[in-house]
Fold:
Amino acid sequence: MAKCKDASYSCSAHFQGTCSHHRGVQYWYR
Structure:
């Protein structure tokens, strides 16, 4: 799970590509 820089969330299991359309990852939840 990751929080994107535009305040959206992604449940992608892989870091690569996560939040790629949301200005990148702000915080990664392990």
